[in-house]
Each structure stands twice: as C-alpha cells, then as structure tokens.
Known about the structure:
About 50% of the residues lie in helices and about 15% in strands. By secondary structure, the protein is α/β, with parallel strands linked by helices. The protein folds into 2 domains: about 5-180, 3-Layer(aba) Sandwich (Rossmann fold); about 190-265, N-(1-d-carboxylethyl)-l-norvaline Dehydrogenase, domain 2, CATH 1.10.1040.50. The protein has an 8-stranded mixed sheet with strand order 3-2-1-4-5-6-7-8, with helices on both faces. It starts with a strand and ends in a 16-residue tail after the last helix.
Amino acid sequence: MKIGVVGAGLMGAEIALVFAFGGYPVVLNDLDEAALERGMLRLANLLDKGVSRGFYTREEADAAFNGIHTTPDLKDMADCNMVTEAVFEALDVKMKVLRALDNTCQPECILASNTSTLPISTLAAVLAPERQRRFLGTHYFSPVSRMKLVEVIPAFGTDDAVMEQVTNMLRHIGKEPVQVKDVAGFAVNRLLHAMLIEAVKLVEEEVASPEDIDAACRLGLGHAIGPFALMDAVTSSLCLQVQDILYDAYGERFRPPALLKQRVAAGLTGGRDRAGWLRQG
C-alpha cells in the first residue's frame, strides 16, 4: 500500500516517517515547499539522533528517509491507498483539504484525519456519501516517532472493515491503537486538559509554582513530563485553542483559565525559542 500525508509540520512529517519505517512508500505533501524542506531536515536530524543512540542502524534510517517522496502538488496523492491529513487544527482548513482529497484520490482510498479535538462526523460531512464509509480519525500523539498511542475514531458511516484494516496497519508500524467514540476532544484530550486547567488554577491561586507542580506530577503521579513543561512544548496557544473547543462542547468544566488567556495574549506561549511557563525564551 502507498501512504499519503498532507501537512509537513511536526505531526505530519513524523506520521510519514513511522509509515516509512513500516516499509510503506510514502508521499508527503505541503503547499509550502519551504515547509517540506524544513520537515525533511527535521526528520534527518531526528534519524541522526536515533542512529547515534542505537535505536536503529544507519541503513534502516536511510531506507526510511528515502522512502518518503515530497511534493507540493496534492494531485500526487491520486494513487495512494490511504491518506492522512495533518494540517492546522481548524475546521475550515481541514474541510478544505478533505474536500480536495475526496476529488483527487481513487474511490477505494481511505482518508483519515489527525485532528485532536474536532468531531470526525462533522469532518465527514464534506465528503461524498460513498467516501464517508472510508473515512475515520487517527489521532497520533507528539512526538509521533516515540509515542505509541493512536486514538482511532469512527464517523457515523465508517465501515467496520475500514476500522479493522487501519487498526492492523497501525499495529504493523508499531503503534497501539485504541478505539474511541466520536466526541469533541475524544478521550485523552478531555483527561489531559482537565488536568492542565486545574494546574493553571493552582498557580492562579498561588498554591504552588509551575516548577513545583511539575515536580509533583513527575514524582508523585509518575508522569513522564509535568503539565507546564508539556504546555511549553506544545505551546500554550494550542492548549487554549483546544480548551476553547472543549468549552464550546461541554461548558463550564473546560472554561480556559484567565491566566492562560493572559499569557497567550502576552506572547508567553512557549514553543521554539519563545518564553513560556518554565523558560524565559
């Protein structure tokens, strides 16, 4: 099977990589050729680190890297058997991409969305009725190259056979898929953002500092990373965006804290070379 991925950002590039490591030929698309170059450079650096740490051989790394073909033209997805969109987490952007893929890909091609919060059945509404049975959500976790979990989410019309086929493919590339009902935020983000909201409230109330809360979560709860380090890694602006979606869906329990909104408005979002909760930039 030939795999397509739309979006060469942090998530999309690594989704392409894990399928390439699984032996699938991969087409990675982005309208921005500079984004494609940055994505492949990031993968090259990631593979170099993996080789130096003994995770895989140089030959295995080179084979995976060379198994990814980049293109700015969505028409190059026409002969793919499965295409995953991994573009910006905005309903209109994702719908535009999915509509274009529906018109480009062969009838039997499976389409998947890597959305972390948007309902799959809402996205499915832009597809032709015959395509909807071959559409589902596959929510990967960052960094995709290391995190094994994938939430697999059926839309209302998704065929059981498609769910089974994609689940088996994910296991083949070393992932651990779990099936989740199609609700806003799915399962993991609802759990995660309930914790992130409470963590920010603890800082608002001066119960403890971000550093001490992170230490408490690592040492007391066994978490690999604390909530504030996580927000700095994925950016507080993305966390606020997700919490706004959850608030619209579920109401008061997911209202974003005022302090989070203030820090995002002030540019204290974290991310590459930007000040966040734990660093000054």
